[in-house]
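Q: What would this chain look like folded?
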Amino acid sequence: MGLERTGNGYLVDPTIWTEEIMHEMAKEDDMELTESMVGQIMSAREYFEENSSGTAHPNFCKIRWH
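A: My prediction, written as structure tokens:
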């Protein structure tokens, strides 16, 4: 798919985000998402949609990918 991403790995255009893109990004990063990871990502997305911003790191759980 070749998604356009920032140097930190975020989507350049976050409005295109979908669950399919989430899995594609994980694939590009050579990761397999667990159900727990997907749940945490979906919670973060829900928060973002309700508040029009991301969460402050101390207020949201930290995920270790490796």
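The chain has two helices and no strands.
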